[in-house]
Structure formats: C-alpha cells, structure tokens
Amino acid sequence: MKKPAETTRFAVPAILLAGGKASRMGGGDKCLRLLGGRPLLAHVIARLKAQTGEMAINANGDQTRFARFGLAVVADEIAGQPGPLAGILAGLDWAVRAWPGTDCILSVSTDCPFLPADLVARLAAGIRDGAEIAIAASNGRTHPVIGLWRVALRKDLRRALGLEGLRRVESYCDRHRTHIVNFPGVVNLPGGSVDPFFNANTPEDLALAESLLKMPTGG
Hints:
Helix content is 26%, strand content 22%. The protein is of the alpha/beta class. A seven-stranded mixed beta sheet has the order 5-4-1-6-8-7-9, sandwiched between helices. Strands 2-3 form a two-stranded antiparallel ribbon. Helix 2 (84-98) runs antiparallel to helix 4. It is globular, with a radius of gyration of 17 Å.
C-alpha cells in the first residue's frame, strides 16, 4: 500500500462507517442510496479525497457490493453489529496493519454528503496538546462519530466493547481526553445552506439533500 507523501500534512487514514442498519431509510445500505445520481458514499469519498491518506469502508456482509469504489472493506470484529464504536475499532486495527506507525485515524459516517473541506485540518489542530480524541461539533451539537482517534486507544476500546459491553460513542469519549472542535454552522450549496454535518437518515432527508444540490430556478 502506498504511503502518503511526507509533504501531505494531514494525510491520516480514514474509516468510512457504513455498517448501520438504516432502519429509518427502509433498510439496506443507506450509503448506496443515490443523491444527485451518485451514491451517498461517493459524495463522502469526494469530500475527503484531498484531505486524507488511504480510505477504507467499514461494513459487514458481502464486500463485493462496494467493489466499484476501489477501497478496502473491513468488517466489525465484535459480533452482533454493536454500532459505530465497533467500526472505529475495525478502522484502528486496519490502520495498524496497513499503515505501521500511524498516530491517528479519521472516522466519518457515510450519510453526511456535505462534509467540510477543512475537516481533517481542524480536527488535527484539535487533537494536539495531549488530546486522545477530537470530535466535530456545529450549531451546538456534537457529531461523535466524526472525529480523529489515537491509534493507541485500540486495546482499551476493544476491552470496552468486548468485556464491558459499551456501545455509546459519547460514553467512550467521556472516559478520555476529548477535544470538541467547533465548525462554522453552514455550508453553502446551489440550492441553499445547510449544516456541514447534515446526515440523510430518512427518505425526506435525502429529498432535502437533493434539493440543496440543485440551482433554484428564477421566477
């Protein structure tokens, strides 16, 4: 696997969390739903391509359904689809195998098509000064699955998931030195403005995202 150029300042590996059940979207792989003619996952990849090193998809089941994206697919080690913490652990383990010596990984949810162009740079600044985790926030809300995680957390996270049954990302962050990084509250799109961490959880959300990508017609 190609190592990122030394001049790429924030080239951290990224794990794209696609393991959710998508119950509010009717089931299946939410990240493969189309937005502007492309899967949600393709929008996320495009937003991160210039910001990260290698990317991998965290998903369970048949990996071939993601073959078109040309990325590694890593499954949860913890059985039963215990949630995004298991995906983050899978990402940490993948980074250790594929990127020996890496310090951090980025985690993002794959239903957020409008991620900021400076996501990694701002989180990287936030994780300095001894923080173990840096989490994104906007408009008074934290987005705990979007953040940077020290690779050194992987053994502790495996224990918390496997032995303690911990499931909530916020609860795990509360145990560690976590820096909350506030982002500007809007991103401007052809059809209007929206929170940069808008996530498409329902068909209605997806319809709204579709409208935001379209230039309004004059009246």
